[in-house]
Amino acid sequence: LKIQKKALETDVSALTKDRADRVSEINHLDNTINEYKQNLTDLKEAFQTNKQGYDEFINSIKEFMLQYAMFEGFIAMLQTSPAEKKSIRELASYILMLGEKIWDFYDQPDRLRYLFVTTVLGDYLKCYRCNKCGLKFIANKEPKSYVRNFSCPSCGLSWDLHADDSFLEAMLGFSSKSTDANNTEKQEN
């Protein structure tokens, strides 16, 4: 019996030690799981922060892409202008030079817009009106071209077309005749 008791005590001791090892292992696994849960929470927070930053970045890219597309259109308009003989490099240098200076509008915005349009288009757009049907249209004939080659897109007549810059003047904000008078007046002073 003593031998059995001793064997049982040894078994109980081994089982107790094994149980303690298992409890320690379970506690270690619980701690590891808690660490992983905390890491997962931290990663989710970091992901949300980065996602917000990414979304803001994408939105700013979209905004700047539209601005860049507008700028590309502006440069293309300058490059293809019949009045402008400078290369894009010269224009870019000129724009950079303007950026270094303090920019003040010493003139009226309408007049500046007129100067820009006439410089870029170089009197390239010609506006016409059909006296028969009243249609107004724009043609991109070279300056000093004659109307005789045009026919009204609406009624087809070609003999009753007359120059009518009212559309262009509306786009520019005022009459080109008043600007020409202002230029003459400034040159005389």
Please describe what this structure looks like:
The structure is a single chain. The protein has five helices and three strands. It is mostly helical. The chain has two domains: 1-80; 107-188, Rubrerythrin, domain 2 (Single Sheet). It has a three-stranded antiparallel beta sheet with strand order 2-1-3, covered by helices on one side. β1 (126-130) and β2 (136-139) form a beta hairpin. The relative contact order is 0.06.
Topology record:
Layout: H1 2-79, H2 88-100, H3 109-121, E1 126-130, E2 136-139, E3 161-163, H4 166-172, H5 176-188
Antiparallel strand pairs: 1-2, 1-3
Low-confidence stretches: 178-189
Helix content: 55-70%
Helix run count: 5
CATH architecture call of the largest domain = Single Sheet
Mean pLDDT, as a whole number? 75
Q: Provide the spatial order of strands within the biggest beta sheet.
A: 2-1-3
Integer-rounded radius of gyration: 40 Å
Q: Note the beta-strand portion.
A: 5-15%
| SS-based class | mainly alpha
The arrangement of helices and strands along the chain is HHHEEEHH
Give the overall form. Answer: rod-shaped
Total discrete domains: 2
